[in-house]
Amino acid sequence: MPPRDKKSEEREAGVLVIGLGRFGSAIATALDSLGQDVLAVEKDAQLVAEWTGRLPIVQADATNPEALEQLGAREFGVAVVAIGTSIEASVLVTANLVDLETPQIWAKAITDKHGKILERIGAQHIVFPEADAGARVAHLVSGKMLDYIDVEEGFTIVKMRPPLEMQGFTLAESNIRRRYGITVIGVKSPGEHFEFAERETRVAASDIIVCSGHADLIERFAARP
Fold it and tell me: Which residues contact 177 (CB under 8 A, 6 or more apart)?
């Protein structure tokens, strides 16, 4: 592997968040609270005034490549294009970041076609926040699930209440993996810390279990009484 130059190391140091709507501001504030070096870019003067003093922020039109150059966008290793009101602006900003050779570009997409365009011009990660949130809530309101994470290609992780057939039994006795094709990762009892599951782990009715597996299998298991 070739040695890393100083410029490559510097480009990994910060995250550029472009667009401070609900999605962008949530990402920027979360990154800032985690101690990340983040810079928000927003062209709307009212939003800039609202966030000044709360986040590192500059007012600029990121569709203009010269503006990105002037604010030092070339020095950031990660950029998030959080623009959701204009597909044209989203595409232009993403293209500008590709021209700047930004190593990682995360871009918010409004539609599937929008996402395909962003991917084709060079964004490595496409995010559909509204669709993802809708799917997650749909799973949560439809059964025992308390949380739902779609990892990739149908593989999911869920937090849920245990069905009756698990209550009072160890994982070896209920044999959930063989019967339903899912894996119980851990168990959380009231007032206790999360524990990774073992064959001898006994599950009570008041416990919360964390399971992983294919979405279809998880759905079938969560529908058990």
Answer: 183, 184
Say what the alpha-carbon torsion angle 6, 7, 9, 10 is, to the nearest 10 degrees: 120
Residue that the structure tokens 């149908």 belong to:
154
Q: For the chain, list the strands marked E by DSSP.
A: 14-18, 37-42, 57-59, 78-81, 104-108, 125-127, 145-152, 155-160, 183-188, 195-196, 208-214
Question: What one-character DSSP code corresponds to residue 211?
Answer: E
* Burial grade of 184 (CB within 10 A; 0-12, 13-18, 19 or more): buried
pLDDT tens-place string over residues 127-145: 887 766 666 666 666 566 7
Looking at this protein, which amino acid is placed at residue 30?
A: A
Phi, psi (rounded to 5 degrees) for 99: -65, -30
SS3 171: helix
CATH number of 132-222: 3.30.70.1450
At the second CATH level, the architecture of 6-127 is 3-Layer(aba) Sandwich (3.40)
Residue pLDDT, tens place only, 70-80: 999 999 999 99
